[in-house]
Amino acid sequence: MKKAITDSLLYVLLFAAIQIAVGIVAQLICQTKDVSPIATIVCSIVSSVLAIALFAWRKWTPMPNHYISQRPWFTLFWVICLAGGSVMPMTFAIEQAGIDMPEGYAKLFKGIMSHDSGFLAVGVLAPIAEEMVFRGAILRRLLDALDVRWHWAAIVVTAALFGAIHLNMAQGINAFVMGLLLGWMYMRTRSIVPGLVFHFTNNTIAFFSYRLFPYAADKTLVEFYGGNINNVLMAVAFSLMIFGAALYQLSFRLQRGR
Length: 258
Prior knowledge:
The protein is an all-alpha fold. It has helices at residues 2-29, 37-57, 65-68, 73-96, 103-113, 118-145, 151-164, 169-189, 193-212, 221-224, 229-253.
């Protein structure tokens, strides 16, 4: 038990250290220049690649071959639906709570999303790195060490750590809720594959939503829908129906090898 906690803390510290180290190097390189979106994207790509390489090399995250070999394509379809159905309700809930992304983070977000190569950083590599670290390494160790009665405690702790590394309340709350779903899927399958699909879908929706509607980044959902709260509520309700149907399907489809 103590070793699992120690290992989990080590994984978090290593992941954070990689991000901080890459960020410091980037700042030193860019001291005489304005930090451009591409510099931020390169930092994200490099830190993700380093994390993926380290956790794969040390075998802290088992490879997901056992799950993929069963070809659980229909299950993964419902995972995509679950991710898609969660976006609108979470956005609406965070807005209603009056939580905004800090200006500095919002500027970085826009810079990354406005660049084509931002998709590689946000939509592909970040999900792989984060799922390997938080579900494949941290949650795996905690689940193996804890009695089955405490498995949800392991999921909550991992989700809280996942939220904390985003370093701002708006993204942190969203990441925490997403972490609960990701942890539940990992607990049921002991594979990071469903989480990767969910994470990829979530980040892809965010990326292409910004590319299609860049002007909406500074608007609330009500403003985006022309000030009509009824339209927003209908959109949220429709998303929740998709989310609920997907959650129901996954409640019996998510099993090892399915």
